[in-house]
Amino acid sequence: MNPDHRDTGRLWRSPEPRAGYDAVIVGSGGHGLATAYYLAAEHGMTDIAVLERSWLAGGNMARNTAIIRSNYLWPASAAIYEHALRLWEGLEEELGRDLHFSRRGVLNLAQSTHEVRESVRRVDADRLSGIDAEWLEPEQVAELVPILDTGPHVRHPVLGATYQPRAGIADHDLVAWAFAAEADRLGVDLVQDCEVTGFLRDGGRVTGVRTSRGDIEAPRVALCAAGRTSRLAAELGLRLPLQSHPLQALVSQLLEPVLDTVVMSSATHVYVSQAPKGELVLGAGIDAYNGYGRRGSFRTVEDQVAAAVELYPVFAHADVVRTWAGIVDVTPDASPVIGPAPVEGVYLNCGWGTGGYKATPGAGQVLADTVARGRAHPLAEPFGLDRFTTGALVDEHGAAAVAH
User: Fold this and answer.
1) Rounded CA gap, 237 and 357, in Å?
2) DSSP string, 100-145
3) Which run of H or of E encompasses 3?
4) What's the whole-model pTM score?
C-alpha cells in the first residue's frame, strides 16, 4: 500500500529498491514516468520500479523547449504524435494538476522554394490524416506574428508557413512531477541514484538488471534512457542505429508579452516561444559532433542568436540569461524506435531526436500497452527496429523542423 505522504510536502516517496518487480523501467524522463503511470492506471501493473541513475526527470525532460505539435508528414508519425496531442488536451484533468498547457499554435516557416513545396505537401498530408493544418502566406504570417521580419531583405525571407492552431507548450517540470506523483500514488517505486550497469539473463531471456544498488529481478525491462539506451543495449549485444548529439537552447531575461505563438525556422535552425513568466525560450539545431556533453558549442549558440535577431529585430535588446544542452538520440530516418527488442523481455523506447517531449503521454501509453501485452501497440508497429533491415523507413527529417 502506498502511504499518504502529502503532509510531508513531498510529491512522491523515496523508496529503497526491492529485490524484484513485475517490470522495471530504466530512465525517469517523461517517457519513463508516463509509461509507469499508464501501466499502473490502465493495466493494473503497480509492482513496477522506475530506475534513475541521477535525479528524477533531470535529463532531457528538464532540458527541452516544451513544444507540443503533431504536424508530421507521414501517416505513421502523424498518428502517434496526434495521439499524444489528444492526450495532452485532457492531461491536466486526468492528472489533476495544472501543467501550464497553452494551446497557442505553432508556425513552421518556409524560407526557400523547396521548403514551400515541402510545407504545402505536409499541410495536405496532415489534413488527409485528420490533423489541423493550414498554409499561411507571408502577409498572414506577419499579421499573426507582428515582431517577425517578413521583408524580402532578410537572408532567408519568409515565403509562408504551416500553422497548427491546436499545438502549443506545457511546463516540462510540472508534467514530469505530475506523472511521478500519480505513478507513486498508484504504488510505483521511483528509485533515484540507481544506475543500471548490466542485465540478468537466463539463456536468451533478460530476467532483470544489475544496478549500482544491487541486482533487481524483473521479467520485463523497458529502456527509456534516450541517448544512453544505445549504451545499455550494447550490454545485450545490440547495436542500435542511434547517434547522440547535444541540442542547445537558451532563455532570455523576463520581458513583457511580445509573442503569443511558437515559431520554428528550419532554414536558420532557431525556434522560439515566450514562456508564461515572460522569458523568451530559444532552441537551436543539434551540434554536429556526437557526444553526451550538456554544454554544447559556443558556435551553435552564436548562430542561434544571430538568426533570432535577424528574424526578430526587437530581440536585439534582450539579454541571454541561461544556456543549456540536452542529449538527443537520432536515428537515420529521424523517427523513434518503440516496441519489443530482439532480446526477449526487453522493450525499447528511443530515437525520438527532437520529438521526445511532445510525444510524452502518447509514447508512455503506447509503450505501456506494449509492455503489458508483450507485443507492439498498433501505433508502434511502424517504428520497430526491423525497419532498418527491411527498408521500411519513416523519413521525417523535414517535419522534424531542425537539423538532424
Assistant:
1) 28
2) --B---EEEEE-SHHHHHHHHHHHHHHHHTT---EEE-HHHHHHH-
3) none
4) 0.95
